[in-house]
Fold:
Amino acid sequence: MLCAAMKRVRLPFLPGLEVEFADRGRGVQQVLRWAERGTRFPVVVFGPEGCGKTAWLKQAVELLRERGFEVFYLNPLERVVRAEVSVPSVGEAFLDLAQRALAEEAAGRVAWAVFDFVRDLLRARRSKVAVVADDAFQAIGLEKAAAYVKGLLSMIEHPAYSYESIVVLVATSEGLSRREVGRHLWATLMPMWNMGREGFQQLYEQLPSPKPGFEEAWGLTGGNPRMLSMLYEAGWDVEAVVARLAKAKQLTAGFARRWRRQLEEAVEDPDSLWGASTPEELVGALEARNLIVYDMYDRDPRLWVDEPPPERDPELGVGRRVAWQTPLHREAVRRALEESGS
Structure:
């Protein structure tokens, strides 16, 4: 459970509706442990789109601030940048650069700039520093993800000025960026899954009625907050949300017909995609569309941020090695297959 005295951040769920950070007790405890000892390597967190990584990072910022860390938080794609630092000139300069870069549609410049501003902060005073970056890889380009992580590692290992402690957390929803970063030993890669039942129910109960029963919401979303918000916004019209997903994920008739046999098997059992007989091109396409998580980690809790998913859950589309990001993602593929004909 969460620390009783912890300040819970409030998060936008939909226009006009904010919710309170819901229970990710183990994920909070992990942040507290990192706050105590620092991170030896940048911690790169990946997982399904909308699984709650951003909410967890924002709560992490509050936890780290409460423990005396100087915090740089950046989510360039959402145009959100914070500098919770004790040297006003550094914070103001960072925010000024970010404002100009975002105005010029140069979000990636914000991600790269954090190295210089951490150095400037440490030059002014020896501190506990945290860098919390959300979807930075999308801002700088996938091909530069590994170089960015290497820069973060160098900041930890070879700082221009000494620090008291440092915590570096980076989140991404892209399976392909996980592969790019994972080719090197420059980061600790940790998956995060959708919310567990208890935490998801806390979130669900904050939504106004009318709404379906909890079990129905759980079965549709698999604990994914973004899918819950899409359903709520659509007035719980499941077909509308599935159609929107199919369009957004470019599940065209041609794509469905080309991979019909493999996709029909995968909607029944995602683990059918695991193995030498599955074309790498198909796996890459499904990962690039953020439809599946491939090569799932063992369910050892030490390897995961917060709680790992079950070993298998056919109803939610979770296999041992491969999982649909949510049941609605699986339904979007099923819809594409049905509409593409035989």
Observations:
- The chain has a mean pLDDT of 94.
- Strands lie at 10-14, 17-20, 43-46, 70-75, 80-84, 128-134, 165-172, 188-191, 292-294, 322-324.
- The chain has two domains: 11-191, 197-339.
